[in-house]
Amino acid sequence: MSKKVILTGDRPTGKLHIGHYVGSLRRRVELQNSGLYEKIFVFEADAQALTDNIENPEKVRQNVIEVALDYLAVGLDPAKTTLFIQSQIPELCELSFYFMDLVSVSRLQRNPTVKTEIQMRGFSGESIPVGFFTYPISQAADITMFKATTVPVGEDQEPMLEQCREIVRRFNNIYGETLVEPNILLPENAACLRLPGTDGKAKMSKSLGNCIYLSDSADEVNRKVKTMYTDPEHLQVNDPGHLEGNTVFTYLDAFATDEQVSRLTTDYATLQEMKEHYTRGGLGDMKCKKLLMAVLQETLEPIRLRRAEYEKDIPAVYEILRKGCEVARAEACDTMDKVRRAMKINYFDDRALIEEQARRFQK
User: Fold this and answer.
1) Which residues are bridge partners to 183 per DSSP?
2) Is the pLDDT of residue 350 over 60?
3) Architecture label for domain 218-310
């Protein structure tokens, strides 16, 4: 039976938001505390972040600590989870280099996640940075380097995982069973698959400015919820409301439990009861938003408090990352030893090769 290992991470281009939380962070903490996994690796993909921030390295540099604080604040425990920084593991570059020989340009061009990300950043034709274009290869190296069996991510990353599996199969077919083929682990709550932005746009995104950050103050959260996109046809309280595309109810689906709804309102025992009232009319948007504010505060206040404690000793946070990099580096060295042997490029470690060549030239 193979060992169960988790690998997942984020680009440190800004503080993490509640879309990250329901999409992956909350699940990471649950998995960490489940005791079902032998190893858990969570990393900051700073090298990947530089592919489209190459002229602004300070942005990435500053956000490495912000993301680390968010990791610790949500409950990732360095005693149970290895937290590390991508750029500090040079073996990842080596494995990516070998993987490049296993993937065609046309295959990369067909990757829907790559297409979407290229469009979002305004790249076109020859302006696409090679490093950004080859992101699926880099991500495959990240995953396979740490022998990950499970990768908890959002649904937008599914094409990336499929491409990773293709690379693993091709490598193992050519060089023998060496790498582990990973499985994706999606959020169980459908509302968490892709949390929309506060403006109702398809995805919460730092670049679109439609985020609620994990580190936002209570006042900031309330301000953002008050301006949230709801139902444009729900003009009067008595008008029937629509749930589809209504950001407030999408967020309630992602965050609220029936216990919270019952405790924080006087009129509803479940969220479903509230939805039914809204759709038949007679329930105003602000009342729904006030419930969401209360639910988000219950979720985010413990996170804010933990973050404030870690902020008191930033050198200690860097030390956590440094130690995590040491653990990750050791794992990477072990994988690369296996990869080099499989590819027959471990020249100086292969005594049989050296002796065979010596005999050949002595004849």
Assistant:
1) 150
2) yes
3) Orthogonal Bundle (1.10)
